[in-house]
Amino acid sequence: MSAASCCKLRVLFVDDEPLIRQIMAVELPARGHDVIVCEDGASALKTLSEKSFDCAIIDLQMPGLTGWDVVARMQELAPDTLAIIHTAHGSMDAAIQGLRMRVFDFLPKPCSLFDLDGLLLRVADHRNLMNKTIALEKTLRAVQGGSELVGDSLAMQRVKRLTDKIAPTDSSVLILGETGTGKELVARRIHDLSPRSSMPFVAVNCGALSEQLVESEFFGHRKGAFTGADTARKGLLEVADGGTLFLDELGELDKAMQVKLLRFLESGEVRRVGENEAFHVDVRIVCATNRPLTDMIAAGTFREDLYFRINTFEVSLPALRDRKEDLPALAHALLVRHLKGRRVPEGFLSHEVLEVLSRHEWPGNIRELANSLEHAVILSNGSVLSPDDLPGSLNRRRPLEFQRDELEMGFGTTLATAKPTTIQAMEKELIFSALARHNGDKPKAASELGIALKTLYNKLNQYQADAAARAG
Question: Which CATH number is 144-316 given?
Answer without folding.
Answer: 3.40.50.300
